[in-house]
Amino acid sequence: MTVSFGVRRQAAAEYQHRSRGGPVTVFAQALHAALYGLPVDDDPLPTALDELLQATHTATTPEQKAAVLRRLADQLGNAAEIIQRYQYQAQADRLPDDIATQLSDACGQAQRIAEILDRAAPAFSSPPAAQVPPGRQSRHAAGPPATPPGHRR
Fold first, then answer.
1. Alpha carbon of 96 to those of 71, 81, 92: distances in Å?
2. Between the CA of residue 119 and those of 122, 125, 130, 148, what are the distances in Å?
3. How much is the pLDDT for 148?
4. With 88 labelled, which of 37, 73, 105, 145 sits at a CA distance of 20 to 30 A?
């Protein structure tokens, strides 16, 4: 059996982006593994950001969505380290001070975003039950109105 996948060349130009990987390749890899009895990749999430973006379109379960956020947090942590190295290099090369300062700011922001995503990821794997916002409860669910001090019922 021969299976061939392809995309129209105009798609990348039409949407002003390049496409590498994505849902079609994930499907093709799974099909290849199934046909030839190969083990399925235990960690299907890519590490490249453009491929991780494509993975967001195929993540359907809460666990997959949380895993994408965790992987993104890891990648942003790596990006912060890269930025920090260039910050140090800018200082060593005696580049203008504002360059090192901007890189330092970018490093800090990348670290903060990574921490936020790391904390937010578990919420996607176990979404909270639907809650009724305060003030929208039915009158029967609320207790009796409070009696003002000094008044008796």
1. 34, 21, 11
2. 7, 12, 21, 43
3. 47
4. 73
Q: Over the Cα atoms of the chain, what is R_g? A: 25
Q: How far apart are CA 22 and CA 29, in angstroms?
A: 11
| Residue 102 CB neighbour total at 10 angstroms | 14
DSSP of 22-88: SHHHHHHHHHHHHHHTPPPPS----SSHHHHHHHHHH--SHHHHHHHHHHHHHHHHHHHHHHHHHHH
Q: Which amino acid is at 59?
A: A
Q: Encode 110-144: b = buried (16+ Cβ within 10 Å), e = exposed.
A: bbebbeebbeebeebeeeeeeeeeeeeeeeeeeee
Q: What's the CA dihedral at 72, 78, 83, 84 to 10 degrees?
A: 140
Q: What Cα–Cα distance (Å) separates residue 111 from each residue in 83, 90, 100, 107, 108?
A: 10, 19, 16, 6, 5
What pLDDT was estimated at residue 49? 81
How is 79-115 classified by DSSP, letter by letter?
A: HHHHHHHHHHHHHHTT--HHHHHHHHHHHHHHHHHHH
pLDDT digits (tens, 9 = 90+) for 76-112: 999 999 999 999 999 999 999 999 999 999 999 999 9
